[in-house]
Amino acid sequence: MHEAVRAAGRLFPLSLPSRGTCTIGGNLATNAGGVQVLRYGTARQLTLGIEVVTADGEIWDGLRDLRKDNTGYDLRDLYIGSEGTLGIITAASLRLFPLPRQEETAFAALPSIEAALAFLGLARARLGELLTSFELIAATSLALVARHLPEMPLPYGAASFTAPWHVLVQASGDANVAERLEATLAEGLQAGHLIDAVVARSLAQARELWTVREGGLGEAMRRAGGAIGHDVSITVSRIPKFLSDAEARLREQWPDVLIAVHGHLGDGNLHYNVLLPPQQRTADAAQRVHRMVYDSVAELAGSFSAEHGIGQIKTDELRRYKSSVELGLMRAIKMALDPKGLMNPGKVLI
Hints:
The structure is a single chain. This protein is α+β, with helices and mostly antiparallel strands. It folds into 3 domains: 2-98, Uridine Diphospho-n-acetylenolpyruvylglucosamine Reductase, domain 3 (2-Layer Sandwich), CATH 3.30.465.10; 102-209, Alpha-Beta Plaits, CATH 3.30.70.2190; 231-299, Alpha-Beta Plaits (2-Layer Sandwich). It has 12 helices and 12 strands. The strands form 3 sheets. Strands 9-6-8-7-11-12-10 form a 7-stranded antiparallel β-sheet, sandwiched between helices. The chain has a 3-stranded antiparallel β-sheet with strand order 3-2-4. The chain has a two-stranded antiparallel sheet with strand order 1-5. α5 runs antiparallel to α7 (177-191) and α9 (239-253) runs antiparallel to α10. It is globular and about 60 Å long. It starts with a helix and ends in a 13-residue tail after the last helix.
């Protein structure tokens, strides 16, 4: 789909590392996010209308392309993100954007997570709507890439591990994008937010930088084995406290734990991966890790599932962290739209 849209001179900005295998229906059912949410929003914001097969076999034609339609309950948003438990999305009308004439990518090293937030604020102020992506990567995550994917080039080679945090920044627009991005990086260096930065000078170099984020990190976690993953979201200003609190809890129990973080800093979505020492990797330990991480998230009014949904794996967390009012409303909606429990049974609400 991306190729067809691009051939027509347009952009569909829902961009995911799994874009080679995922489907539009699945993206809408989970309200997928990806690396360009900062500028364009999630799947919900990118959808104008949908067609749905309901639990009783009827077809709801909601394929409108209206930007405004205030004629009752918003059924579109109810089905998007419901993980197929209310009905099956069979077609969609999606928002497209003009294809940017210029796209620039940079990779920068930072001395602290606080510096990353300060540079995010600076980038937003200086780049405005040109700022497309702002991805956070911990040095521990890059070290896993180097260990398990030695053939993959890292942005600054061996120096990639001298700074604790890194950001992958993308800006796009029609004019002066490179100049504005480089000026922003220079200001960040002068202010002490950045330690070092590299700017891609070609499309090939940009792809190399993005390959680390979109392919390298996930594959490195897979090859490392035993990673206990979390897909969480926290108000951006509270991320430093979350990282501090969660690590303190984990290290009190497992002093040698390895924590590898990456994610979409611009919208507060972190992929928080925990690797315990091999001899301590048990099912019970994994459950305790989940509880520690999710408790740290909940204490800061965050979400234990930012973009990966509930499915059948996180149903216990849904009951633990959602209020009784929310659960009651969700069950009432499920009963009204799928009283026989035909739609994706055993998922989300059980």
